[in-house]
Amino acid sequence: MNMLSKISILVISGLVVLASSSLYVISEVERGVTLRFGEMVQADIKPGWHLKAPFIDNVRRFDARILTVDAQPASFFTIEKKRLIVDSYAKWKISDVETYYKATGGSERIAVNRLAKRVNDGLRNQFGNRTLREVVSGERDMLMKNITDSLNNTVLDELGIEIIDVRVKRIDLPPEVSNQVYRRMTAERNKEAQELRSTGKEKAEKIRASADRERTIELANAYRDAEQLRGQGDAEAAKIYAEAYEEDPEFYAFVRSLNAYKSAFSNKGDILLVEPDSDFFKYLNQQKSD
User: I want to staple 91 with a disulfide (CB 3.0 to 4.6 A). Which of 159, 164, 280, 289 is the partner?
Assistant: First the structure.
């Protein structure tokens, strides 16, 4: 390899090194700053290709996506001086890169620690102005919105961070009062259950009494109607018998005697003492005389 080729290779290598030291890329999920001897010379570098002074400038990149800070559970007091254990988290992103770098030195850990402290302070202030019922009921959304707005009024200027949302994952009572609260809740539920049982038993008795009364009324009405129908039937039968017997009274008397004989002599073990000339043997005596 001659001298010219060696020089060409050296020149090309130098140009490659120079280009790699001068060109850099900021991706769409990043923001960056350019430092020259530790001093910031360009802030909030947008995504794309950029140039820098080789071997002099240094580029720091930061995650521009929405990040999460998961605060440690902390103890807060309500306006009623009731202590609660609150577990929360916050969504945030870098809004002002220059302020963020100056406040945190570009360290995400420092930013998370400072933000977590501010989130806990905001929760403490909001919980201190509300009752326990307001904290755990429908006002929680308003509470979270107030905390988010309050934090954005300070952290944006101090840390260059925008708070997207603050949420409470869990609210617990401290161990020393949880058992007492659970016992009270159990007693209240038992009382409510007993009241419901008593009310149900009272309604059941009323329904049962009403059903018995209606049953008695229906049976009485049915018996009355049956007796009326039976009386009408008996009257109709008596009328028919009377009309039939009026046609031949002697035949009627004969049939009645036959029925009496049949009833009297149906049981062979019975003994009947009757005078021979009694009317009971009227038709038998007539049959003998004939």
Answer: 164
